[in-house]
Amino acid sequence: MKTITGKSPKVTLLGAGPGDPELLTLKAVKALSNADVVLYDSLVNEEILKHANRALLVFVGKRKGNHSHTQDEINELIVDYATEFGHVVRVKGGDPFVFGRGKEEEMYALAHGIEVEVISGISSSVAVPASVGIPVTSRGVAESFWVITGTTSERALSKDLTLAAQSSATVVVLMGMAKLKEITEIYSSFGKQDLPVAIIQNGTHTEQKEVVGTVQNILEISQNQGIGAPAVIVIGEVVHLARARKQLKEDWVLEDEFIFQNLNTLPFRN
Question: Any idea what DSSP says for residue 8?
């Protein structure tokens, strides 16, 4: 099968990472530079689209209550553009196989006889907690971690959360801000009101915001600070490590200020 330009149709499912354009992989950059058409989501930092300088750019974002296209329509667009133009790069935030419906798009394209390549992206489930100093696992603190969707296809909270809440694992919830009250109620039902929680909004972006609290007070804290979607929720003892890092940084700054004041000088500034 050839396109009108004589090219063989191909689809690349590409993960754009959590938001920082510098977290895009080299393989992803090469794919974008070779794209004829790019279909991209709302969580994709548009800065990365500069790498697709000869492609037709098509926005197909889906956000809560505002879908520019249904998933079925996106599937059809992928095949139609590949058949007509050649190389279609379908760009998704994070990783296309982590709650990205990438497998559905892959299977649809393959069913239409189109070659498909998958380029993994850095998942926000790991990179966003790391951006504030939270490791999802740490020796002696957390031996495993769960990544759970806050909203299933039925618009409900995943039942897996009840199982995860009973473990000692770190739990990372994606797309869960609308269900934050339910999440805290589940943890409280297991007597875990004091378990630390962090919420990072717009993780790795320049406008990133984060709050830290406990299961008992994180809902109030996040509301008072105006934290909303898109955000990553991290639940577990590893959140304490972010606090330790922040405190260490503050202590270092205070110590340096004392030294510089007594030496009657100022630190170097960039």
Answer: P
State how far the Cα of 184 lies from the Cα of 227, in Å rounded to an integer: 16
Active site residue 194: no
The pTM for the full model equals 0.86
What single letter denotes the amino acid at residue 153? Answer: S
Which residues lie below 8 Å from residue 86, measured CB to CB, with a gap of 6+?
3, 5, 7, 8, 9, 10, 36, 37
The catalytically annotated residue of 10, 20, 95, 175 is 175
Q: What is the spatial distance between Cα 242 and Cα 46, in angstroms, rounded to a whole number?
A: 29
Which two tokens mark 232?
């990553």
Element at 82 (helix H, strand E): helix 71-85
Active site residue 62: yes
Q: Phi first, then psi: give them for residue 31, nearest 5 degrees.
A: -65, -40
Q: Which of 7, 27, 62, 209 is catalytic?
A: 62
Choosing from 10, 20, 36, 41, which is the catalytic residue? 41
Among candidate residues 151, 152, 146, 182, the one with its CA nearest the CA of residue 167 = 146
Calpha distance 193→146 (Å, rounded): 19
Catalytic annotation on 95? Answer: no
Give the integer Cα–Cα distance in Å for 20 and 24: 8
Report pLDDT digits (tens) over 18-68.
999 999 999 999 999 999 999 999 989 999 999 999 999 999 986 555 557
Of 180 and 254, more confident: 180
Omega of the bond prior to 230 within 30 degrees of 0, cis? yes
Decide if pLDDT at 249 tops 70: no
Compute the average pLDDT of residues 229-235.
97
Q: Enumerate helices (H) and strands (E) in the chain, giving the number of each.
A: 8, 12
Q: Are strands 145-149 and 115-119 parallel, antiparallel or unpaired?
A: unpaired
